[in-house]
Write a structure and sequence with these properties.
The structure is a single chain. This protein has 123 residues and is α+β, with helices and mostly antiparallel strands. The protein contains two helices and five strands, in the order H-E-E-E-H-E-E. It has a single domain (5-114), classed as HIT family, subunit A (2-Layer Sandwich). Strands 1-2-3-5-4 form a five-stranded antiparallel β-sheet, with helices on one face.
Length: 123
């Protein structure tokens, strides 16, 4: 999409602080972070909202979710510890869809939010 800011980031027409990339995904820092770590996981293919997804998008949706634990570990917000009593760390994974869902950019993306609290819980 010509006016989509995330497409422009994917195409390198807008700058972004990129933390991960492969052939299908781009992960970059949110410019208005709600937490110490606030990343956006974006498919390179333009999909406006989660509501626009269908069975044909299952692979990219799965890949977006599957990369989260690795990125969380790299950002030092992953869950550590083997039992509920000793676990620490953690993060939130959020997909906003549509105006009532607080979606601001109409290119499917996952927010990965974490780090020491307190942080804004308005996403």
């Amino acid at each position: 999409m010509e006016n989509c800011p995330f497409c422009k980031i994917v195409e390198r027409r807008l700058p972004a602080d990129i933390v991960y990339e492969n052939d299908r995904l781009l992960v970059f820092k949110d410019i208005n972070p709600a937490a110490p770590v606030h990343l956006l996981i974006v498919p390179k293919q333009h999909i406006p909202t989660l509501s626009d997804c269908h069975e044909g998008h299952a692979a990219i949706l799965g890949e977006m979710m599957a990369v989260i634990p690795r990125i969380a570990d790299q950002q030092r917000i992953g869950v550590v510890g083997s039992s509920p009593q000793t676990r620490s760390g953690g993060y939130r994974v959020i997909i906003n869809a549509g105006p009532d869902g607080r979606q601001e950019v109409y290119h499917l993306h996952i927010h990965l939010i974490g780090g020491p609290r307190p942080w804004k819980d308005n996403k």
